[in-house]
């Protein structure tokens, strides 16, 4: 069986249409990096571009770079590049701040868009914690109450009192992919708005924000978009909602004429209305450079490879892991799977992951018992999936 898997891995790598993209990343063949769903690898061109931004744009041009190097418009320009990856036409995404901050803007703005009598913020019960914390605070501030529901039940749970539902497209822990089209349609049918958190889906699979009429969305850029540690996040506001988008953080950068330094606030049109303060130029331009790797990549090819990788890894785990030691909590159905495999390991999961990392297989551990393996189709190969499962088997066999 294992010999058959090795031959299969070779054949799959040979047929991989994305294989050449790996060399665009700074990766070493000694490590199997399965943590791109926490921090994406470094695209090789980023360091040179950053050196240029620091040396030439900041160092030589200094303040002139806000206009001459295009710094001022960079949040919307880079937003449009992210838009191509999440199915958003230009003019609807602004890059800046953290996901947490953008969740706040989106949830409060969605409540402000809601009709009378809507005082409920519906939250995916298994949400990444920051979304839950921020939504709870946003609810308190807007006179709403929070109600939690399993993300799969949100279509049926949204009702006449729901102002907004906040849902994770892919669950960070289990890797479950939620139904963006169906949930959005059902929440709309209930008269409410939906905010999607795309942190674990953008760059991992095709996302079609415009096609499904999503109201608002947020996401980070340091996972599958490889923007780097602390890279700025983004906010999507559907074009027809932009004139009514009432930001709870109306900083001077979102003013229609920031340099008027007017004491009265007048919001900018378009995506810029989602801005707050001065953009994080260095990390924003690092992200801009990192996005170049996507120029010739089709998201459909990414999805095909992602599913093949995770299918193959699951089969390898079945072949190598001692019976009963791990159990996948990631859905087997392709329609319900993101780009990771999470294995429940009831016995000593933290120690197992530490040993895996020591042996060159980098995933992560999520308390209390989850071993999480992220598969980044741009740079992860099938032989690596096989090696990760083999080493996991060895570690579990102790
Ligand atoms: C689903 C999800 N939402 C939000 C965050 C937090 O984003 P940030 O730290 O950029 O606020 C993360 C990861 O850290 C995440 O996985
Ligand atoms: N944002 C992170 C960080 O600053 C340090 C360590 C990990 C992260 C993460 O992104 C965690 C990630 N969102 C998760 O899904 O677990």
TrEMBL record:
Pyridoxal 5'-phosphate binds at residues 99-100, 128-131, 197, 200, 222, 252, 278. Its EC number is 3.7.1.3. GO terms for cellular component: cytoplasm. The keyword Glycoprotein does not apply. It catalyses: 3-hydroxy-L-kynurenine + H2O = 3-hydroxyanthranilate + L-alanine + H(+); L-kynurenine + H2O = anthranilate + L-alanine + H(+). Pathway: Cofactor biosynthesis; NAD(+) biosynthesis; quinolinate from L-kynurenine: step 2/3; Amino-acid degradation; L-kynurenine degradation; L-alanine and anthranilate from L-kynurenine: step 1/1. GO terms for biological process: anthranilate metabolic process; L-kynurenine catabolic process; L-tryptophan catabolic process to kynurenine; NAD+ biosynthetic process; quinolinate biosynthetic process. The keyword Signal does not apply. The modification N6-(pyridoxal phosphate)lysine is found at residue 223. One of its GO terms (molecular function) is kynureninase activity. Belongs to the kynureninase family. Catalyzes the cleavage of L-kynurenine (L-Kyn) and L-3-hydroxykynurenine (L-3OHKyn) into anthranilic acid (AA) and 3-hydroxyanthranilic acid (3-OHAA), respectively. HAMAP family: Kynureninase. This is Kynureninase. It comes from Streptomyces eurocidicus (Streptoverticillium eurocidicus). The lineage of its organism: Bacteria, Bacillati, Actinomycetota, Actinomycetes, Kitasatosporales.
